[in-house]
Amino acid sequence: MPSWCLRACVVAGAALFALGCGGDDDAYRIGVMESLTGAGETYGTVANQSKQMAADEINAAGGIDGRRLELVVEDSQCNAQSAITAYQKLTDVEGVRIILGTSCSGAMLGVAPLAEADGVILFSGLASNPDIAEAGDYIFRTQINDIEVGIATGNVLWADGIRALATITEATDYAEGVRRTTVEQFERLGGSVVAAERFGPEVTDFRSQLTKLFAAGPEALHIAPQSEFSAGTIVKQARELGYTGPIYAETISVGATALEVAGAAADGMKAITADLDPENAKGQEVLANFRERYDYVTLPWHLGSAYDNVYIAAECLRRTGDDQDADGFRDCLYAITWSGAIGDDYSFDSDGEVVGLSRVVVEVLPLAERTEQRAYRVLGPAPGR
Known about the structure:
7-stranded mixed sheet; 13 helices; disordered N terminus
């Protein structure tokens, strides 16, 4: 051990873990796959930073029964092929058996069959496509299934008197899942989709597609993007084209970057999203610590979900005592009940789906009223079946 490291360890005590001094050969090593580039860059980055903050806290407090926690990070780039490459690097080269991720549903669905076949844990805080529920016995998530988003969105549309809807959707697993479940519920109630457009991740100008949608005379516009940049641009361009009707959306569309791009065009937009409870002291503490450390916040619930994933992983490592014991880790997740940043007393069902968390309906505030801490008002719980 270098002399500078030894001196730092002597002086700092438990903080040696955060410095990376000593114990490296005995560290618990787990993988992280987030979208550090690509369509999910904004929320993948915030998730990765939140996970690192959590790991640093654990290590500064003495680690997991004295053993340091090491995160081995790979970029899944919000697509299936890149996620597979990242997965193979983590498992074949780094030898990890427990992976926290991914950010995007397409990446999750792409790599889940490999993880299931290999008996490797894939534990996501962000991926929400409904099909993930059927991905296998080693696949878990704290993110809430988008079936709930679709049902709630359809119900809100109907309750608001909308009967004719236009949709614009990014051609990704996440966005398509949101659209599909929303339309199914809306049509079940008696509504009709009068126009629909899809776009690829490379598209940055949506005016031609929006013009086609508005020509059909919809009473409302539903947007389902993969990236915050697309979300904000769609909303902005819709208003620039003269559309004055209501806009309905989902989580990505109310992220800080999306609302910054949209500006006043997003005023009054409604979305179904997961939101950190202002009465949850742990969630508010995590937000404050993240803002102090990184000087920004976007998509607070995603941030909190990623944070909780690390602490849940640390507890399961404490119980199993082995970062190679994926079966033991899996059994721990099935048995655990957790209280953290995103809620109290939540757990996982037999499909690895989170139980005990719910979403809310929010409405974006007028631009002049938005702050870093508050960009929308919560209207109430997301209406279910």
